[in-house]
Amino acid sequence: MSREETRRIALERIHILFRLADEVFPENPERAQRYIDLARRIAMRCRVKLPRELRRRICKYCKSLLRPGVNCRVRVRQRREPHIVVTCFNCGRVSRYPIRRKG
Ligand SMILES: [Zn+2]
């Protein structure tokens, strides 16, 4: 199997794991977290970067799956460079992500 193919399959699995995590989270947050940990391990093993939209759904510090309004708070700030501020309720730390405008 080519390296490209390995990566493609890894990304597919990662997306599936995130979807599963979202599905089970309301009933079983521990299992959801296990899916996320598994997705991160696949990414590391296959040396693929988590796509940005998925990376932002994991706390940078404690690696928990973030669910806005459940275990994190998401705020949009317009001062200086517009950015998103995500506060993780699990570890209490704050991640900031710039908002990129299209075009
Ligand atoms: Zn955290």
Describe this structure in words.
The protein is α+β, with helices and mostly antiparallel strands and 103 residues long. The radius of gyration is 15 Å and the shape is globular. The mean pLDDT is 94. A hairpin with a 5-residue loop joins strand 2 and strand 3. It contains 3 helices and 3 strands, in the order H-H-H-E-E-E. Helix 1 packs antiparallel against helix 2 (29-45). It has helices at 3-24, 29-45, 52-55, and strands spanning 72-77, 83-88, 94-98. Bound molecules: zinc ion.
Low-confidence stretches: none
Mean pLDDT across all amino acids:
94
The count of β-strands is 3
Percent strand: 15-25%
User: Which fold name is given in CATH as the topology of the largest domain?
Assistant: Single alpha-helices involved in coiled-coils or other helix-helix interfaces
